[in-house]
Design brief:
The protein has 481 residues and is mainly β. Among the domains are: 150 residues, no CATH class; 184 residues, Single-stranded right-handed beta-helix, Pectin lyase-like (Pectate Lyase C-like), CATH 2.160.20. The chain has a 50-stranded mixed β-sheet that branches. Strands 10-11 form a two-stranded antiparallel ribbon. The radius of gyration is 28 Å and the shape is elongated. It starts with a strand and ends with a strand.
C-alpha cells in the first residue's frame, strides 16, 4: 500500500484509512503503508467506532509530513505489533479524546477517551513516538521500543493536558532528542514500571503535576540533563521504588513541590562533573526516603540536597562523595537548607571525601532550620566538618559517629536550643566537638571524644575522664546537662 496523497480531508486533515464503525480488525498482514506528500493521519479511528484493532504492519513516511501514523480518537482501540518510522509531527501514535462524525467533518468536540492499548510496537525516528492529549481516562502502553524520536519518546504535553489512569510498562525508550517521557499539566494515577530510558538529549523523565504516581523498577541513564524530575508544580502522592539513575548531566533525581513523597530502594549515581546535586528534594511536605544509595563521583556536586522540606524522614541511606579538591561549602553529603522543619536523618552513612558530611545551614532565601534531628548516623573522611549545624533552632544530633574528618567532628554555629548528645567523635583533625560561643541554649552532653586535635571546645567546658573503664587514656565524656 502506497499513498502519495489522500484527499478526504476534514478538521483533522487528510486521512488514509478512516475507521468509522465498531468491531473492526484492521490487519496489515505484514504489509507496509508508505505515506508521502502532505497528509493528516495515515489511520484514524473516528465517529463512534469502538473495539478497533490495528495490528501487524508498518507505517512509514518522511517525518516532516503528516500528523500521526495512527490517530486514536475513540475508546477501546488496540494498536499492536506495528512498526512506525519517520511519521508524525504529532506522534507515531497519537491518542486524543475527540468525537468527530465523519472523515470530512469540519469540526469536532472533546469527549473523554478510555481503554486504549498500545503494545509490542516499534517506533523509530518519529518526531514523537506516542503522543497523549486530553481528555483521556485510561490507557496502557506496554512492551514497546521507542528509538530516536526527534522530540519525545512518550509525551502528554501542552496546556491543560489531562491524562489519567495510565500504565506504561516494559518499554525501552532510547535516543530521544529532548525527553524520554514528558508530561506537563494535571496527570492523575500513573504507573511507570519496568521501563528503561537512555540517552535522552535532555531529561529521561519529566513527570509534572502528578497526582498519585508510581515509578517502579526503572532504569534511566545517560541523560543530557536530568534523569528524573517529578512534581515541579502541585504534585501529590508520589512513589519512586527500586529504580536506578546513572550518569545524568544535571540532577539524577529532582523532586519539587510534592506532598507525600516516598522514595525507597533506589540508586542514584553521577559519574561526570555537573555542579548540581545528584539528588535534590525541594518544597516537599511529608515524606520518606529509605534504603537509597547516592554516589557522586563529580567535584562540586552535593550528594543529596533537602531544601525547604517539612516533615521528611531520610533513613537507612548511604551517600558516597568522591572529591579531589578542598572546597569551602561543596560538595556536601546531605545538605539541609532553606527553612527545613521537622526533618529527620536516621541511620545514614556518609563516606568518601565530601567537604562536609551532613550540613544544616542556610541559603539566601531561607529562615532558620527548625526541628532537624540527626540520629545514629556515621560520617567519616570529610575534608572539613563531619556534621555541621548553622543557625539551627531546636535541632539535635544523637547517637552518631564522626571520625577521620579533617577539621571538626561536630560543630554548631549560632544555634539556639539545640542538643548534641551521646555521640562519638574519634580521630578528627581539629575538634572532636566544637560548640561555638555564639550558640545560645545549646546543650552538649554525654559525648565521647578520642584522639582528636582537641577533643572538645565550647560554652560548656566541663569534661571528666571516663576512668571507670580500663585503658581509657584520651577518652572523655561531657556530662553537663
Amino acid at each position: 500500500m502506497n499513498f502519495d496523497m489522500v484527499t478526504n480531508a476534514g478538521a483533522l486533515g487528510a486521512i488514509g484509512i478512516a475507521v468509522n464503525a465498531n468491531n473492526v480488525d484492521l490487519n496489515f498482514n505484514n504489509h507496509t503503508f508508505s505515506v508521502s506528500g502532505e497528509f493528516g493521519q495515515a489511520v484514524a479511528t473516528i465517529g463512534t467506532s469502538a473495539n478497533v484493532w490495528v495490528h501487524n504492519g508498518t507505517i512509514s513516511g518522511t517525518q516532516d509530513t503528516g500528523q500521526s501514523g495512527v490517530f486514536v480518537l475513540t475508546s477501546d482501540v488496540t494498536v499492536s505489533d506495528m512498526n512506525f518510522s519517520n511519521v508524525g509531527t504529532a506522534g507515531g501514535v497519537q491518542v486524543q479524546g475527540i468525537n468527530i462524525t465523519s472523515p470530512s467533518a469540519s469540526s469536532y468536540t472533546l469527549t473523554e477517551l478510555s481503554g486504549f492499548v498500545i503494545e509490542r510496537c516499534q517506533f523509530s525516528s518519529n518526531v514523537v513516538g506516542i503522543a497523549l492529549f486530553s481528555p483521556i481516562n485510561s490507557g496502557i502502553i506496554r512492551d514497546c521500543a521507542i528509538d530516536s524520536s526527534v522530540q519525545f519518546g512518550i509525551s502528554a504535553s501542552g496546556r491543560f493536558i489531562n491524562v489519567n489512569n495510565m500504565l506504561i510498562e516494559n518499554c525501552n525508550i532510547s535516543n530521544s532528542g529532548l525527553h524520554g517521557i514528558f508530561t506537563t499539566f494535571y496527570q492523575n494515577n500513573w504507573v511507570i514500571r519496568n521501563c528503561q530510558v537512555s540517552n535522552s538529549g535532555l531529561d529521561g523523565m519529566i513527570l509534572a503535576a502528578m497526582q498519585n504516581l508510581l515509578v517502579d523498577n526503572c532504569q534511566v541513564y545517560d541523560s543530557g540533563a536530568n534523569g528524573i524530575m517529578v512534581g515541579i508544580r502541585l504534585g501529590n502522592n508520589v512513589e519512586i521504588a527500586d529504580t536506578q539513575v546513572f550518569n545524568s548531566g544535571a540532577y539524577a533525581l529532582r523532586v519539587d513541590d510534592v506532598e507525600n513523597l516516598i522514595v525507597h530502594d533506589c540508586e542514584f549515581t553521577n559519574y561526570i562533573m555537573t555542579g548540581t546535586p545528584v539528588v535534590k528534594i525541594q518544597d516537599v511536605y511529608n515524606g520518606n526516603i529509605s534504603n537509597c544509595y547516592v554516589n557522586s563521583l563529580a567535584n562540586l556536586a552535593d550528594g543529596m540536597v533537602l531544601r525547604n522540606c517539612h516533615g521528611l524522614t531520610v533513613e537507612d541511606c548511604g551517600v558516597n562523595i568522591v572529591c579531589t579538591t578542598t572546597q569551602n561549602i561543596a560538595p556536601v553529603g546531605i545538605n539541609l537548607k532553606g527553612s527545613v522543619t521537622g526533618t529527620v536523618l536516621r541511620n545514614c552513612n556518609i563516606s568518601g571525601t565530601p567537604s562536609i558530611g551532613i550540613n544544616v545551614g542556610l541559603d539566601s532565601l531561607s529562615l532558620n532550620n527548625q526541628g532537624v534531628i540527626i540520629e545514629n548516623c556515621n560520617v567519616q573522611g570529610a575534608k572539613q566538618q563531619g556534621i555541621c549545624l548553622v543557625e539551627a533552632v531546636s535541632s539535635a544530633v544523637y547517637d552518631s559517629n564522626v571520625m577521620l574528618n579533617s577539621l571538626d567532628g561536630i560543630v554548631t554555629n549560632s544555634c539556639s536550643q539545640c542538643s548534641i548528645r551521646n555521640n562519638n567523635a574519634i580521630n578528627n583533625g581539629r575538634y572532636g566537638i566544637n560548640d561555638m560561643a555564639s550558640s545560645v541554649g545549646t546543650q552538649v552532653y554525654h559525648n565521647f571524644a578520642n584522639h582528636n586535635g582537641t577533643d572538645y571546645s565550647g560554652t560548656i567546658p566541663l569534661q571528666i575522664p571516663y576512668s571507670s573503664l580500663s585503658d581509657t587514656t584520651g577518652w572523655y565524656v561531657n556530662v553537663s546537662e
